[in-house]
Design a protein that fits this description.
homodimer; six-stranded antiparallel β-sheet; two-stranded antiparallel ribbon; 28% helix; alpha+beta; Chorismate lyase; DNA-binding; 243 residues; Arc Repressor Mutant, subunit A
Amino acid sequence: MAGVAGRVERRSGISLWRQIADQIRQAIGSGEFDEKLPPEMTLAERFGVNRHTVRGAISALVQEGVLRAEQGRGTFIERKQRLAYPIGARTRFSEGLQGQAKDRRGILLAHAIEPADQRTIVALGLTEGDKVVRLETLSEADGRPISRATSFFPGERFPGIEKLYAQSGSVTTALKSFDVVDYFRRSTLISARHASDADLADLRLSPGAIVIATVYTNVDPDERPIQFSETRFAADLVELSVS
Amino acid sequence: MAGVAGRVERRSGISLWRQIADQIRQAIGSGEFDEKLPPEMTLAERFGVNRHTVRGAISALVQEGVLRAEQGRGTFIERKQRLAYPIGARTRFSEGLQGQAKDRRGILLAHAIEPADQRTIVALGLTEGDKVVRLETLSEADGRPISRATSFFPGERFPGIEKLYAQSGSVTTALKSFDVVDYFRRSTLISARHASDADLADLRLSPGAIVIATVYTNVDPDERPIQFSETRFAADLVELSVS
DNA sequence: TATGATTGTCTATATCAATAGACAAATATG
DNA sequence: CATATTTGTCTATTGATATAGACAATCATA
């Protein structure tokens, strides 16, 4: 926004309140406001819409936990900044957010042993019919869900890895039980899209929210693939850092 | 989609036709359909909406150049895949998409000489009051805009860089005239958000589209910062590849 | 304690999005 | 050529978004 009145587009398929919510969220992220939002009437004039439309946007952001409204006082900013999540050859989830969040944990949502699909066969260097362990996991920082991952491990080499993950909440720790003391990230593909229904629910986002998806393969020191995975980050909360 | 009926959410602030358009676009990107979309009636049943709602989604994608509808025959896929854009220590825009696109060019949209803002001062190691050259550029592959960048160069060291860029369409080439024969990317921050109005227009996207933003600093072999930049990629067209 | 500023709630109306059905126009196929 | 399939266009109706105005409730402050 920054003086420049945030513009909104009509009959674009995105309701005005949602466009305004997105712009306010972004403005907060780039440090536009100190601790308090301007009054609803001021925002309404700035966007050229009715006060009630702005209220719609604000109530969505209150739902999201970004804002807190207090009658008579104003609307206050609850959460300002995004977390920076590092990506590189030695990316480990559990070490990623050190210093930025006090409490970090991984939660096992579901697991299955199943035949690998074509993409996983290629990524993990398996052969048709080989089984993989699939883990559906959620990662939280300070009690707030940050990311949602689907991971595949070669079933023959890592039987029962789901139990080890469930106990420790960490892939790195679980792999140690299989004598994998070190591993590397071979490559990462990054894309962005609207969150799926399931991800919306798990990450506690509102419809229309964006996720950053990373697809990657981890290999052991002998270059043998050990994990093929897609992680979806809530784009409002996280940015990736490549160095 | 893939058998799983693509689900849509009502009264979410995103119209159904837009949600469906996003899902179809994504399905195409992941190779769901060969060359032709299923008939409108089939899609309508799959999404649980009226045929006219599907038609709204299709007409948006026709507008975008993703689909082409032919009366009596069906709806055909015009453009299928996303481009993979590599990111790393030696990222150069002009070399990024080699082999994936025949024709690549950078276009100078605007330029200015102005005092550096706080963020740029820090990134480029300047002091308060120093001037920078700002370049607003657009990058096209095979005639289709794929990214939009805002770049800052130290004004004292690179006077007139805008002319050199305008001529060559390449930062790497422009820098050579200043005896910068090699440079490195210090770090990259990646985030995703809804495209701004201006980016929507420049990248020829429809409202609600997502951009992947990369913020980075390039340094010369002596570790002196030479460029601070934000590039916005159309998330429908591009994915980033970190290796 | 009176006043102004601000958020919260209600009612009414207008505009846009989505559904429903019917039929025309173009194409593919037996 | 006759028929089925598929996209294109029209009308009517319902439901969700957005606007408008009025006033209540809460808080800060002079």
